[in-house]
Amino acid sequence: MPTFDTIDDLPADKRVLVRLDLNSPIEDGEPQDNRRFERHAETVRELADAGHRVVLMAHQGRPGRDDFTSLAGHAEILADHVGRDVGFVADTYGDEALAAIDALAAGEILLLENTRMCEDELPEASPEEKAETAFVETLAPHFDAYVNDAYSAAHRKHASLVGFPLALPAYAGRVMETEYEANTAIATREFDGPVTMVVGGTKATDVIGVMDALDETVDRFLLGGVAGELFLRAAGHPVGHDVGEMDLFDEQWKKNQELIESVLDERGDAIRLASDLAYEGDDGERAEVAVGDIDEKATGYLDVGAATVADYEPAIRESDAVFVKGALGVFEDERFADGTVGVLEAIAETDCFSVVGGGDTSRAIEMYGLSEEDFSHVSIAGGAYIRALTGEPLPAVEVLEAAAKRQ
Q1: CB of 226 within 8 A of CB of 204?
Q2: Which of 67, 247, 262, 269 sits a CA distance of 20 to 30 A from 175?
Q3: d(CA 212, CA 205)
Q4: Is the pLDDT of residue 358 over 70?
């Protein structure tokens, strides 16, 4: 169980500064609604319904990138999910923001401008340094308490995440609480039966690090995606390298070859590799080929094949716990969703503890009509989920734990 305080411990009638993660895809300059708004709305609604004065902080994009924009549109989307008005001020800790904060009445909600528009926010630094920034020192005196609900950003040492818990009594919101408990379950819970991990996606370095860290916790790994191809390469198959204009495999192989080969050598009995792969045929339709029949890689492989899904399903159905990190194919294209969706359906139908992690993979649940209720937890975190699985510390969680000891 977490050793931080939650909003259950928050005294009544407070002016509360709340950090959310509303980072969203931007299309035509407008933020797109997603699971994060729905999840964070629970914390915001609970605080407002309890009569607190609720001031929200969040980020969007990074300076210099196309998705770096104002949060004005985010306030409207969040208001729809909360069921209350969410005011917005195009300022973070200047006079305009401070006046709006001080004018709030009980139960009212205000969203401040993008935290990453503040110079003090982004550079990674110690909590002590962040607590001494003008951002924190100016804003903190206007509040009674700080709530962090941004688990998906908890691996960052940014001012809005690690500075305020040193300046104010600090608590975890509902998203922080539930994400932390589910994502650390692999290290903290005892399971009676086999523990299985489905690993895929495009970031092989992350996946391999997780496999290495969890070698004594996970009984078997079911591989797909870029990592799956790189492991097939290590096993001697002529795949797992770039073809044409592709730029996914060779650089990651160069970085991770030694680790991949050692993991395969030491845990080969626990690692299941794809027996067939899918690609786009000459007619534009999905085509499949057995891995053993591949003489050279002449095209990009976009999913695992039907035989692989049939091989993976029984392993899932006899598991006591299944953790998912990364998709097995390019599920955004319906032709290449069979692997990812087939595995998710098997998990949904199995009476096991299940966590689907990473924003991209969890999107497949919504896209293909699966129900979140059929999984123990669907995580909205990416980098923080990886950190939790590998046992690396999360700075924003550590400062909440330290705050609980002081309170």
Answers
A1: yes
A2: 67
A3: 11
A4: no
CA geometry: angle 222, 303, 253, nearest 5 deg = 70
User: CATH assignment of 185-375?
Assistant: 3.40.50.1260
Give Cβ neighbours of residue 216 (< 8 Å, ≥ 6 apart). none
Q: Which residue has the tokens 């729905």?
A: 38
For residue 174, give the nearest of 149, 206, 192, 152 by alpha carbon.
149
Task: Say whether pTM exceeds 0.85.
Answer: yes
For the chain, percent of residues with pLDDT exceeding 70: 99
Q: What is the pLDDT of residues 285-314, one digit of tens each?
A: 999 999 999 999 999 999 999 999 999 999
CA torsion sign for 81, 84, 85, 91 is negative
- For range 353-368, the mean pLDDT: 87
Two tokens at 136?
């924190």
pLDDT of amino acid 359? 65
What's the mean pLDDT when you consider all of the chain?
Answer: 95
What's the confidence (pLDDT) of residue 1?
A: 55
| Residue ranges covered by each domain of the chain | 7-180+393-406, 185-375
User: pLDDT tens across 136-155, in order?
Assistant: 999 999 999 999 999 999 99
Distances (CA, A) of 159 to 46, 150, 163, 202: 25, 13, 5, 30
Question: Phi/psi at 290 (nearest 5 deg)?
Answer: -70, 140
Name which residue leads in pLDDT, 184 or 224: 224
DSSP 327: -
Which helix (H) or strand (E) segment holds residue 206: the answer is helix 204-213
* Separation between Cα atoms, residue 344 and residue 374, nearest integer Å: 10
Helix %, strand %, coil % of the chain (to 5): 45, 15, 40
Residue 25 CA, chain-centre distance (Å), reads 14
Q: Are 302 and 329 in contact (CB under 8 A)?
A: yes
CATH superfamily of 7-180+393-406: Phosphoglycerate kinase, N-terminal domain (3.40.50.1260)
Q: Are domains 7-180+393-406 and 185-375 of this chain identical in fold?
A: yes
